[in-house]
């Protein structure tokens, strides 16, 4: 192309000067720097493995460009710490400023990467800035100027900046008297939200829709305030909530990576909302207006990388408000990346180092210059939140199931289809993997009064509720009015309801089976409607040749030939997925996060995948968690973004004919179903952490390999751990624990086991269980040996001499730095869920950290 | 729901569900990858005699709005999509897409594997298609026998001049199949606009004493419009600031000695990066292109290449070296499309302003 | 009080338009020399040169003119030093010279600049490009290429900022004391 050559020729000093000068003051990185990537710290609410995924990709890009990189983290379930692409890994607390300073000094850091460590990393950097530390040391931050970092952590300053820019933000003012407060309310209009300044005890936000309510709210709020002041916010509850994600390079090129809308209105936390991409209910004018606004903000903040802007859109008054500005990688980035196939983290990492968007080189799987094409989709993606209230209620704890501005969901699934109905149904059944919770008549006994109450104040089960309302004859416009949900969705739900009625009326009909599948109904749902079982439906579909066609998830809507190996199923004409090879392993992951060891599960299964790849095996993964590290295309040869019901897995197996299917140990039904079909299942054994661990318990960890290819006597004792809530400790100073035998038959499958004993009670409570996944974090991080990889090699009969040595060195391989502790992080589920009793037990913990006295270099033998 | 068929001139037939008009129609089949703006796209006169495939899975969800018409009477020949939202939900709703298409005699067909269709169309350019009740031999015979007109412009452009008054610069728009977005952008800048038929002579246009002239976008192959128009453009560009858009850009290129070719694959969408060469900046704009200027045919002593598409390398903008005359292949009116492209109108108005002051 | 009248985007567009006009007026850029008036005019000249380079793949020489002795916004001030051209590695004789300045006000700076150019040789022509013409001319001087005409009162000031020295691109009107 002639244009290319003239581009290449433009290398005069003049042009370079021009490029730097006119296209902003952002500095470009030089390869002589030493970068510090600040880690994400422990997993928590709304913090799954998306940051670990982005970190892994970022480290790989930095490695490719020969950057000298240091990575600081203390998350035991961090995959990146064990697969750091050549970076120096420091075990230490990334949220602790003293630790970060120590690392900066001892490692001679020149630049900081804060964008893959979430808000925690941004806060750490802000604290460093606050003491002029970075300026004094001449350390720069990649991705944005220091002034922007400061804005992110200061909402008032951010609002002022946006207002100066002419971008609308929610009016928020402080009042010292009732009459001042009424002045504000008159000015911004009802409804308003009243909050106390410096409240005694818990803060509160009270919605006032009229003068009377405001009176009441004010007297309470003044009373509660220690300064006798209140904040009066303009309320935007009920508006449409949408997110736009943009990317900007150092030369000022900006592109829209994607946008999604929340089905639920403002007032329900975005993470608890049902989210849809591409945008469904915006006109082009509204869409372009918000795109422009997002660009405007990115320019003002001098972002070099990704930024997500959350808007509240008022479709009646035709205006909008900016609710949130996140100039770093987050769950929206992860979701849009999975949805479009555009490699957001990879491109953002390139751009952050100063490479311009036209210069970003992606793998040959993508069409030329894919980095510069604004992604467009020819499929619909729905993100469906998962709530875990039932777990609490099963333990007799009452929780408030109403959805509010506080996030209550613990995870999410993603459903992809060629219609909203299909995507919605796929996301829903991925979320409810027990069919009993997902029955169309689940709410038939609800009173009309309760129904209306819940329409206005939605709970976690609102999809079922909306379908129930449609069943009872509510009209779309009524429902739109009650729920503030766009009428479009009620037409779609009505369509689902009508299909349900029609399918039920045509039991056994091949034509209706075809149509049901086309709209995303699962075997299980159809079986319910036909009063048969899922196997019967699956067999009928199979016999009739109604089989899924897989389509590529790629960012150009079919315009270009992209060979991205990411697929979703639908029932149409053309199947684009071709089987990989003879030597293929299908890996079923732990799926969406529920409660407990979600991050540990992702960590273990991703390590399994990585080891399979290492062994020269082609890997295929099936998962539906938008935040999952196991879904990033760098780890596997092929990805299926699919629910994980038996028929979904079998559909993939029918196409791929994998030699092995790896399944986590808790998927008993699936394992049974696959074994019944003589499929070669390899189970990655696990047990729930909940069964274990009372204060003072100690465990002996062993590995068992039944065909004994590891070359040493089976079972091998490899470690001893102790538990004192909330700390799991790897014991290294012991003299061995003689006489602890596992109960007969308790270690039937190959894998890792924990035998519980209490050192204080004479081994009286001996119980052997499969090693809970979180304990792998402690083992690997504590010993510097990757036991998961070793297990995979053993399962494949590929144990190495080094493995045998490690195995035979047992018992009690020493930890790298004396005692290593893994500490469960308290999650305030009680407050979020407004539980009437404390939620205790291991399954109510979401994350953990490795405690270190001093940061040290972490190395692992993979 | 009625079943109907989309049949292609390569012999394939697709079964789908009918919506919109029950008419049987034929036209060239093209695909558009825009995610938003279905109403603007369907009503744009450049789709005269064409059947439009939308790659975005759902259209119709925001109904039909008065502000999104790009022409009063749309003349597209059909709409093909995976699914249509049959009811409008937008606040300004006046019609659902289904009703709208009925009124304008445009058939739609849903339930099509549009991804498979697009993957075919991206390598089979210029296929004709029909939307029919029965996909039998007779239907294919009819489709193969059809001769589509090459006089699209005369069928959609205004036959007589009209005014769109404003208090600002005096702009004459030559209508080759004008879309409303151009007038909207001129109105925003308070221009005093006279729209004239594309056959109007240079003298008649100059008698309107314009500060600037716009050659509008429009349907079809610019080479089918005849030499007189090129002569007119050649005269006008030496006298008054001039902006060509879409078909107008292709005519401007032809008038200045370049040649036009049919693109191997038509490109319709709004997600390609376009580089403005002079600043090396990248922008996005709506594009709907079946023809393009041949790069090697451009006389560089006369024309500057100002914009290129970074994906396919196509010429996206030209400028005369000696006169204040320029043109863009993309659609700067942002209806639909990204707003950064509208600065083309700012540039044009500024140019006319400066000339105005110098008179 | 500072009021922004030209933002970064508008400034870029103005320079782009001026560049096209220079090509148009000079029938090409073969014999062209740009001379920027220090400080900001130099950066503006650089930007025009890089635009020309983008378009034509030709490097147009850019000279720097120091007129710090001439403060044409201070009435009755006498020049303390003579204007001088530096960084120009080509003769101006028979060249088409385009003088580039940020603001055109009384015209005295430009007169000094023309003197300095004439001292170096005999150019084929001298044209003047300015980003802002604020009026109040005291000499019969007119710009050939104007980014923006901004009528101002005598007691107002025009502040042109360029990214290279000021960290931003803008034109502001300053009223009152600074």
Automatic annotation (TrEMBL), chain A:
Sorted alphabetically, the keyword list is: ATP-binding, Ligase, Magnesium, Manganese, Metal-binding, Nucleotide-binding, Pyrimidine biosynthesis, Repeat
Family annotation (PROSITE patterns)? ATP_GRASP
InterPro entries found in the cross-reference section: ATP-grasp, CarbamoylP_synth_lsu_oligo_sf, CPAse_ATP-bd, CPSase_dom, CPSase_lsu_oligo, CPSase_preATP-grasp, PreATP-grasp_dom_sf
Give the record's GO CC terms.
cytoplasm
The catalysed reaction is: hydrogencarbonate + NH4(+) + 2 ATP = carbamoyl phosphate + 2 ADP + phosphate + 2 H(+)
Q: Which GO terms describe its biological process?
A: glutamine metabolic process; pyrimidine nucleotide biosynthetic process
Q: Which domain of life is it from?
A: Bacteria
A Pfam family that this protein carries is CPSase_L_D1
Family named by the database record:
Belongs to the CarB family.
Write down what this protein is called: ATP-grasp domain-containing protein
Organism equals: Furfurilactobacillus milii
Automatic annotation (TrEMBL), chain B:
User: Where does this protein act, in terms of pathway?
Assistant: Amino-acid biosynthesis; L-arginine biosynthesis; carbamoyl phosphate from bicarbonate: step 1/1; Pyrimidine metabolism; UMP biosynthesis via de novo pathway; (S)-dihydroorotate from bicarbonate: step 1/3
Query: Keyword ATP-binding on this protein?
Result: yes
Region called CPSase, residue ranges: 1-169
Residue ranges of the TM segments: none
**Binding-site residues, L-glutamine:** 218, 220, 247, 291
Gene Ontology biological process terms, A to Z: 'de novo' pyrimidine nucleobase biosynthetic process; 'de novo' UMP biosynthetic process; glutamine metabolic process; L-arginine biosynthetic process
State the Gene Ontology terms under molecular function: ATP binding; carbamoyl-phosphate synthase (glutamine-hydrolyzing) activity
Spell out the Pfam families in the cross-references.
CPSase_sm_chain (PF00988), GATase (PF00117)
Domain Carbamoyl-phosphate synthase small subunit N-terminal spans what residues?
2-132
Which Enzyme Commission number(s) are on file for it? 6.3.5.5
Among InterPro entries, the record links this protein to: Anth_synth/Amidotransfase (IPR050472), CarbamoylP_synth_ssu (IPR006274), CarbamoylP_synth_ssu_N (IPR002474), CarbP_synth_ssu_N_sf (IPR036480), Class_I_gatase-like (IPR029062), CPSase_GATase1 (IPR035686), GATASE (IPR017926)
Q: Which UniProt keywords apply?
A: Amino-acid biosynthesis, Arginine biosynthesis, ATP-binding, Glutamine amidotransferase, Ligase, Nucleotide-binding, Pyrimidine biosynthesis
Enzyme category, top tier: ligase
User: Which sites are catalytic?
Assistant: 333
Coiled-coil spans are none
**SUPFAM superfamilies linked:** Carbamoyl phosphate synthetase, small subunit N-terminal domain (SSF52021), Class I glutamine amidotransferase-like (SSF52317)
**Catalytic activity, per the record?**
L-glutamine + H2O = L-glutamate + NH4(+); hydrogencarbonate + L-glutamine + 2 ATP + H2O = carbamoyl phosphate + L-glutamate + 2 ADP + phosphate + 2 H(+)
Q: Which domain of life is it from?
A: Bacteria
Provide the family line.
Belongs to the CarA family.
NCBIfam families per the UniProt record, alphabetical: CPSaseIIsmall (TIGR01368), PRK12838.1 (NF009475)
- Summary of subunit composition and partner proteins: Composed of two chains; the small (or glutamine) chain promotes the hydrolysis of glutamine to ammonia, which is used by the large (or ammonia) chain to synthesize carbamoyl phosphate. Tetramer of heterodimers (alpha,beta)4.
Protein name per the record: Carbamoyl phosphate synthase small chain
Organism, scientific name: Furfurilactobacillus milii
**What does the record give as the organism's lineage?**
Bacteria, Bacillati, Bacillota, Bacilli, Lactobacillales
Q: Which gene encodes it?
A: carA
From TrEMBL, chain C:
Lineage, top-rank taxon, reads: Bacteria
Entries under CDD domains matching the protein? PRTases_typeI
Task: Give the record's GO biological process terms.
Answer: DNA-templated transcription termination
Entry keyword set: Glycosyltransferase, RNA-binding, Transcription, Transcription regulation, Transcription termination, Transferase
- Where along the sequence does the record place the motif called PRPP-binding? 97-109
Q: Which Pfam families match?
A: Pribosyltran
Q: Does the keyword Transmembrane helix apply?
A: no
What does the subunit comment say? Homodimer and homohexamer; in equilibrium.
Organism of origin is: Furfurilactobacillus rossiae DSM 15814
Enzyme class, UniProt record, top EC level: transferase
The reaction(s) catalysed by this protein are:
UMP + diphosphate = 5-phospho-alpha-D-ribose 1-diphosphate + uracil
The record's GO molecular-function terms, alphabetically, read: RNA binding; uracil phosphoribosyltransferase activity
**Domain Phosphoribosyltransferase per the UniProt entry, residue ranges:** 2-162
Q: Answer yes or no on keyword Transcription.
A: yes
EC numbers:
2.4.2.9
- Protein name as catalogued: Bifunctional protein PyrR
| Role of this protein | Also displays a weak uracil phosphoribosyltransferase activity which is not physiologically significant. Regulates transcriptional attenuation of the pyrimidine nucleotide (pyr) operon by binding in a uridine-dependent manner to specific sites on pyr mRNA. This disrupts an antiterminator hairpin in the RNA and favors formation of a downstream transcription terminator, leading to a reduced expression of downstream genes.
Coiled-coil spans are none
**What family name appears in the similarity comment?**
Belongs to the purine/pyrimidine phosphoribosyltransferase family. PyrR subfamily.
